[in-house]
């Protein structure tokens, strides 16, 4: 079915970098050799990032979300060792890790290595629970890739899902898709300590090209929605704003939502999560609650409605209505959920003024990062010009703006480091 919403090639003026991936993987393998020395060549894995088109901050409130994987992600070059030494390095971060797989007490460092280390611990624990006796050999792993870190494109779930996938291959463990998704999720919630919802590892672990994942986070039921052909594209504009304490601010939003639910639930005893609360319940008892909790709850309740409206629009082949929900979502994230920043607002405003842009909103948690736009492919050059020049006038620097294609989820890059590879399959 052609929903009229899809991914086109980038219009002239918006960079489309889908070409030339083999060279990037080969470069990563070379870099591995420089860091860890020659010998057995590493195996190379790829794990995508994601954009979420609708359902902002709904996953940890039990609501529906509509993410899709993107063709930017984490590269993982991995080689097993004869001993049980674990060595992690990254081309994107200065710190590295050296430890022993057995015998060491692992502690959270507050750095990027917590993500893959957390996954190692989860996978070992899963293997222990399932009684899989193995010789868990040490590893040399170089992380890197072409996904902006901390930009709302889920670099953390990308690295976690990718690591779980790579470990399953390296240690020959029969992990299925959901094992991988849950190992990634538990690592981030547990060892890393982010109170994240289920969206990101599901979006990446269950990814299919040219499909949106409709994920109902109340019970994790999910289905694929068509997002294929059509004269429209997804563009992502990066403000390059990164807030240091974004994780803390994110956990604070989770807590505020929890408190809002705690205050509202007695007036609607059938509700099991904030997603279930009705607007009339909020109206009738909201006056007794903390005003911040009321704002957060109103965002969640209305965003649930918007996400269902967007779903209907997608199925009816009505991209304009879909796009309108994105603009409304952004306004709500700015005013009620208070996770936007002036740079994101500027881009959304510029996009709204452009002919051919159907919708735009911040993607991910907010506090900086990226705006995702739905636009007519042919409008690309005009949109780029307008968004970049408006932004530059106000902030004195340029945002980057790119068209993103879809992706099929984590996989090993086969043979001569070509595109494609062996993935999770169905
Ligand atoms: C972050 C979290 C997700 C989700 C989004 C907001 O990306 O990791 O679980 O809550 O923010 O929609």
Description of the molecule:
The chain starts with 20 loop residues before the first helix and ends with a strand. The protein contains 11 helices and 14 strands. It is α+β, with helices and mostly antiparallel strands. The site of alpha-D-galactopyranose has 12 residues, from α5.
Quick description:
It contains eleven helices and 14 strands. The longest helix is centred in the C-terminal third of the chain and has 25 residues, at 291-315. The protein is of the alpha+beta class and 426 residues long.
Helices and strands, with pairings:
Layout: H1 21-36, E1 43-52, E2 64-65, E3 67-80, E4 85-90, E5 97-100, H2 114-129, E6 139-145, H3 155-170, H4 177-192, H5 199-205, E7 211-216, E8 221-226, E9 232-242, H6 246-264, H7 279-285, H8 291-315, H9 319-335, H10 342-352, E10 357-362, E11 368-376, H11 380-395, E12 400-403, E13 411-413, E14 422-423
Parallel strand pairs: 4-6
Antiparallel strand pairs: 1-3, 1-13, 2-7, 3-6, 4-5, 7-8, 9-11, 9-12, 10-11, 13-14
Helix pairs in contact: 2-3, 2-4, 3-4, 3-5, 4-5, 6-8, 8-9, 10-11
This protein binds alpha-D-galactopyranose (GLA).
Second rung of CATH, namely the architecture of the domain at 18-230: 2-Layer Sandwich
Return Rg in Å: 21 Å
User: Helix share of residues?
Assistant: 25-40%
| Secondary-structure content class | alpha+beta
Number of strands: 14
N to C succession of SSEs: HEEEEEHEHHHEEEHHHHHEEHEEE
**Residue windows where pLDDT falls under 50 for at least 5 positions:** 1-18, 416-420
Record the strand order, biggest sheet: 5-4-6-3-1-13-14
State the end-to-end distance. 21 Å
CATH class of the domain at 18-230: Alpha Beta
